[in-house]
């Protein structure tokens, strides 16, 4: 790890420690610099502001967890790993999920999951049957659902086991839920026709 990366890591760790006792909106760059025993100039050499630190944390922590799960059968394991990681860092993620604005968790998750769904579609050669606009709409639709479910889980205190939610999302994305509903509908229609 380079000196610059190490300093970024130390600043990020310092911010996470501060967020165990303070709200993100109450933390200043001066607080972070004092906590990390660095000058404000050192902070600004590495980050633009505290939002930039949050963004760096999201991308360095979340990318390795969900970045390699681009097949239709593997993305759920990435989301489960992410839920596990978020629960291990509950104080931080509970705190940062509360703020809106630049570099927020919601936008970060939307970007990750929109790219993930696009990659799943491309890995399955979906571009051969879908137009680019369709891929974009489908990717955003599923990204909203995946991000929303994860954000709800965090905002509700991470009380429920995330596995049930992830399993439902897997069944939804694979089409299994709709196959079951259509099968039920077909069975009901067949029963009515027999009468």
Entry summary:
The chain is 74% helix and 0% strand.
Fold blueprint:
Layout: H1 3-18, H2 29-36, H3 40-46, H4 50-66, H5 75-88, H6 90-96, H7 105-123, H8 132-155, H9 162-174, H10 176-194
Helix pairs in contact: 1-2, 1-4, 4-7, 5-9, 7-8, 8-9
Please describe the structure with a list of short key phrases separated by commas or semicolons.
single chain; 195 residues; mainly alpha; 10 helices
Describe the structure in your own words.
The protein has 195 residues and is mainly α. The protein contains ten helices and no strands. The protein has helices at 3-18, 29-36, 40-46, 50-66, 75-88, 90-96, 105-123, 132-155, 162-174, 176-194. Helix 1 crosses helix 4 (50-66), helix 4 packs parallel to helix 7 and helix 8 (132-155) packs antiparallel against helix 9 (162-174). The chain is elongated, with a radius of gyration of 21 Å. The mean pLDDT is 87.
């Amino acid at each position: 790890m380079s000196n610059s990366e190490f300093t970024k890591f130390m600043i990020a760790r310092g911010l996470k420690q501060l967020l165990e006792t303070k709200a993100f909106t109450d933390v200043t760059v001066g607080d972070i610099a004092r906590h990390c025993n660095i000058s404000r100039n050192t902070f600004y050499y590495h980050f633009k502001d505290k939002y930039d630190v949050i963004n760096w944390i999201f991308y360095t922590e979340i990318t390795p967890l969900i970045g390699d799960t681009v097949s239709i059968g593997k993305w759920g394991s990435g989301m489960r790993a992410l839920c596990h990681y978020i629960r291990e860092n509950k104080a931080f993620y509970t705190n940062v999920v509360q703020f809106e604005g630049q570099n927020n968790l919601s936008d970060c998750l939307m970007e990750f999951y929109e790219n993930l769904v696009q990659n799943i579609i491309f890995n399955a050669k979906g571009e051969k049957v879908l137009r680019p606009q369709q891929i974009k709409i489908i990717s955003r639709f599923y990204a909203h659902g995946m991000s929303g479910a994860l954000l709800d889980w965090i905002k509700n205190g991470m009380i429920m086991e995330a596995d049930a939610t992830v399993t439902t999302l897997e069944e939804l994305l694979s089409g299994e839920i709709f196959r079951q509903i259509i099968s039920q509908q077909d069975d009901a229609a067949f029963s009515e026709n027999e009468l």
